[in-house]
């Protein structure tokens, strides 16, 4: 009987507690902003450890009208509880629901800067957060470019924080697993601009209970999953039918998104005078984040969106490591995430050495289009970055060009990358060049001799035969002996050439696949006559009359270069080539 009485008492206590939280299907009963007054008391809910939702006390200090933007007010509140006394306002706490008289008033969303001595926060009114309803229209007002919102002096005095105080969004913990600290350090600046605070974490097996969300629970946004993991987390404010409202401020501010949503579990709260944060694990997928707006994030329970599969192979001396993971598809985040994963794969190899040369090969599969190919070589530099960092930059730059094309939204279906580490720095500089002939006729073959000076090696000679084309006009012809980058710049073709005037994404892909490689030696024949660029095609030696006609037929999609490339020859060098030499030859 005692055992039965105890079980009944425990069950009744749980029912009473969760009955005080709004029912998901009917939606919460709200406490409107126009009734919130200074001095009002309320209670908030969040998780500090494990899966237990704990209450904390809330006192209203005042309302800050139009702080975030037009008709976007923030309620200044003071938080207190034994846990908050230790940690203050915690990263991951954004979205914690606040109730006044048992009605939902808003979500804890903003905090003061670092080293604050009192837990004073900004609360997003619940009406603004629920306005993120998936209709496609953002809530009233527009997101500000600033993430710091200064308090009026009068309100700062009431809060006891002094002049010059400002509120900023509570950081969302960015839980990473499988990433090396040295790699995360290279991307800290980019992550901070996105409002992310990187912290160690992991994942736990999926459970049927993952989908049983309540206000005060945590939900995760899955950015990378598989051998490498990255996810962000916020606290759930409210549930209305299948819709889940959280954060109370933007996660990234991207508007409409398709990010897998997962259950998140708090391991512990790490207290710090600088910035306390929740350490969390992610569980099973439970739905999709669909809206990322200025007053909150909204997701829907159900199937999760598809992600991009990535295969990464890193081959170093005596070892090869394979990584398989999925990344979310987003024009701003996917390039960064793949770049981080690529650099991490290289650095995590036990055979990784600074001073090595790296070779990148890869492909990007795009639905309905040709495959984009990546191929290049990278040597150590004097810059204060890891020697493998240029690989990550190359990958990120290529994705940026694909995602930010002005023609259509690409759908990437797969990414395949292979990085090979070669011992020592492999590069050579063009010291001098000369040709075996000073005069030639169209159809003749001219041999160009190039003296190269390798890094810490003996100089050597390379011969490159090139044929004078039949269409070469009598007069002076320039022979440009160079690396890939110099020839690209001379042509004014990359990166600001005709790409903005192409006919579509497929033509952009063809241009990307035509990019020259820096481990080849190039000899180009240049003549002082106009070349017409029409979309992705080059028409050398075009008469002015034809330039006028083609320009009228393709308005805004043509470019004239006052130099024509009559021919080009390249030879593989198996090392990075730098420098250039310009020769002249007379065509008879």
Task: Write a structural description.
With 588 residues, the protein is an alpha+beta fold. The protein has 4 domains: 20-169, Thrombin, subunit H (Beta Barrel); 172-301, no CATH class; 312-422, Ubiquitin-like (UB roll) (Roll); 428-587, no CATH class. Helices cover 18% and strands 44% of the residues. The protein has 11 helices and 34 strands. A 6-stranded antiparallel β-barrel has the order 1-2-3-6-5-4. A hairpin with an 8-residue loop joins strand 5 (103-111) and strand 6. Helix 7 (334-347) runs antiparallel to helix 8. Mean pLDDT is 83; it is low at 1-24, 136-146 and 493-500.
Element layout with pairings:
Elements: H1 2-19, E1 41-47, E2 53-69, E3 72-80, H2 82-87, E4 96-100, E5 103-111, E6 120-125, H3 126-130, E7 149-150, H4 153-159, E8 166-169, E9 172-177, H5 181-186, H6 188-193, E10 196-200, E11 202-203, E12 218-226, E13 229-240, E14 243-246, E15 255-270, E16 277-293, E17 296-301, E18 308-316, E19 319-327, H7 334-347, E20 357-366, E21 372-378, H8 389-403, E22 412-422, E23 427-435, E24 439-440, E25 445-454, E26 460-467, E27 475-482, H9 484-491, H10 505-513, E28 520-527, E29 531-534, E30 537-540, H11 544-553, E31 558-561, E32 564-572, E33 576-578, E34 580-587
Parallel strand pairs: 9-10, 11-16, 18-22, 23-33, 24-34
Antiparallel strand pairs: 1-2, 1-4, 2-3, 3-6, 4-5, 5-6, 5-8, 7-8, 9-13, 12-13, 12-15, 12-19, 13-14, 14-17, 15-16, 16-17, 18-19, 20-21, 20-22, 23-25, 25-26, 27-28, 27-34, 28-32, 29-30, 29-31
Helix pairs in contact: 7-8
């Amino acid at each position: 009987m005692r055992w039965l009485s105890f079980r009944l008492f425990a069950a009744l206590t749980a029912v009473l507690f969760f009955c005080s939280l709004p029912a998901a299907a009917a939606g919460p009963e709200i406490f409107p902003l126009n009734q919130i007054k200074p001095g009002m008391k309320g209670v908030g809910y969040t998780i500090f450890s494990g899966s237990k939702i704990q209450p904390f006390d809330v006192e209203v200090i005042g309302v800050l009208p139009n702080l975030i933007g037009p008709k976007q007010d923030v309620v200044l509140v003071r938080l207190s509880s034994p846990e908050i006394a230790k940690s203050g306002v915690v990263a991951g706490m954004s979205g914690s629901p606040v109730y006044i008289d048992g009605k939902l008033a808003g979500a804890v969303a903003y905090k003061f800067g670092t080293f604050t001595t009192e837990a004073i926060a900004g609360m997003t009114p619940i009406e603004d957060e629920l306005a993120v309803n998936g209709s496609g229209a953002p809530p009233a007002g527009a997101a500000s470019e600033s993430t710091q919102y200064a308090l009026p002096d009068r309100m700062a005095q009431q809060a006891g924080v002094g002049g010059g105080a400002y509120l900023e969004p509570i950081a969302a913990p960015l839980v990473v697993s499988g990433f090396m600290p040295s790699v995360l350090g290279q991307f800290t600046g980019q992550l901070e601009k996105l409002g992310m605070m990187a912290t160690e974490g992991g994942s736990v097996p999926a459970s049927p209970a993952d989908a049983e969300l309540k206000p005060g629970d945590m939900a995760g946004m899955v950015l990378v999953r598989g051998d490498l993991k990255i996810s962000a987390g916020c606290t759930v404010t409210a549930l209305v039918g299948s819709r889940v409202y959280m954060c109370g401020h933007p996660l990234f501010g991207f508007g409409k998104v398709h990010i897998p949503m997962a259950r998140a579990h708090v391991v512990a709260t790490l207290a710090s005078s600088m910035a306390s944060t929740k350490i969390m694990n992610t569980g099973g997928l439970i739905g999709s984040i669909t809206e990322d707006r200025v007053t909150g994030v909204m997701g829907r329970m159900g199937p999760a969106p598809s992600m991009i599969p990535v295969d990464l192979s890193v081959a170093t001396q005596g070892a090869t490591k394979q990584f398989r993971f999925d990344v979310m598809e987003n024009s701003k985040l996917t390039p960064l995430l793949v770049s981080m994963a690529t650099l991490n794969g290289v650095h995590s190899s036990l055979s990784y050495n600074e001073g090595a040369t790296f070779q990148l090969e890869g492909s990007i599969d795009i639905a309905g289009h040709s495959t984009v190919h990546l191929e290049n070589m990278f040597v150590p530099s004097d810059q204060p970055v890891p020697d493998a960092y240029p690989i990550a930059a190359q990958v990120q730059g290529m994705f940026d060009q694909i995602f930010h094309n002005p023609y259509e939204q690409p759908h990437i279906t797969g990414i395949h990358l292979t990085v090979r580490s070669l011992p020592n720095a492999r590069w050579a500089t063009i010291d001098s060049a000369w040709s075996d002939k000073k005069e030639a006729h169209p159809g003749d073959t001219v041999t160009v001799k190039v003296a190269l000076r390798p890094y810490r090696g003996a100089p050597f000679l390379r011969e490159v035969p090139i044929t004078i084309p039949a269409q070469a006009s009598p007069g002076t012809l320039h022979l440009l002996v160079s690396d890939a980058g110099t020839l690209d710049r001379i042509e004014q073709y990359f990166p600001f050439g005709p790409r903005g005037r192409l006919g579509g994404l497929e033509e952009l892909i063809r241009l990307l696949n035509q990019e020259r490689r820096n481990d080849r030696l190039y000899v180009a024949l240049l003549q002082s006559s106009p070349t017409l660029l029409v979309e992705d095609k080059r028409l050398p030696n075009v008469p002015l009359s034809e330039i006028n006609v083609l320009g009228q037929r393709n308005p805004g999609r043509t470019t004239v270069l006052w130099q024509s490339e009559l021919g080009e020859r390249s030879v593989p060098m198996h090392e990075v080539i730098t420098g250039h030499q310009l020769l002249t030859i007379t065509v008879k």
